[in-house]
């Protein structure tokens, strides 16, 4: 799966880092670091994080049926 975060849109709410800490991590107060190709084992966490982002900054591309 592929993850893209629109950092121009991201407001550093850290919902994603809270819900999927293996994929998203806050660096300092507002900067977000993330894995662009997390393991499929992270899928549920990542999808939950994407859904929880208040500004819909997280785009997730999954391959195959869900
Ligand atoms: S939840 Fe959304 S706004 Fe918050 S840090 Fe993650 S990507 Fe940025």
Secondary structure layout:
Blueprint: E1 2-5, H1 15-19, E2 24-27, E3 31-34, H2 43-52, E4 58-61
Antiparallel strand pairs: 1-4, 2-3
The site of iron/sulfur cluster (SF4) has 14 residues, from helix 1.
Count of discrete domains? 1
CATH class: Alpha Beta
Mean pLDDT: 93
Largest sheet: number of strands, sense, barrel closure: 2 strands, antiparallel
Q: Give the topology string: H per helix, E per strand.
A: EHEEHE
Q: Helical segment tally?
A: 2
In the CATH hierarchy, the architecture is 2-Layer Sandwich
**How many E-type strands?**
4
- Percent in strands: 15-25%
CA-CA gap between termini: 11 Å
Q: Based on Cα principal axes, name the global outline.
A: globular
Small molecules bound = iron/sulfur cluster
Query: Unreliable stretches, pLDDT < 50, 5 or more residues?
Result: none
Q: Output the strand order for the largest sheet.
A: 1-4
Structure description:
The protein is of the alpha+beta class and 66 residues long. It has one domain: Alpha-Beta Plaits (2-Layer Sandwich). It has two helices and four strands; from the N terminus they run βαββαβ. The strands form two sheets. It has a two-stranded antiparallel ribbon with strand order 1-4. It has a two-stranded antiparallel ribbon with strand order 2-3. The structure holds iron/sulfur cluster. The site of iron/sulfur cluster (SF4) has 14 residues, from helix 1. The site of iron/sulfur cluster has 14 residues, from helix 1. This is Ferredoxin.
């Amino acid at each position: 799966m592929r993850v893209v975060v629109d950092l121009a849109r991201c407001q550093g709410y850290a919902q994603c880092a809270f819900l999927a800490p293996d994929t998203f991590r806050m660096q300092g107060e507002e900067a977000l670091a993330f894995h662009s190709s997390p393991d499929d084992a992270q899928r549920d966490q990542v999808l939950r994080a994407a859904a929880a982002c208040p500004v819909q900054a997280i785009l997730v591309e999954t391959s195959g049926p869900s």
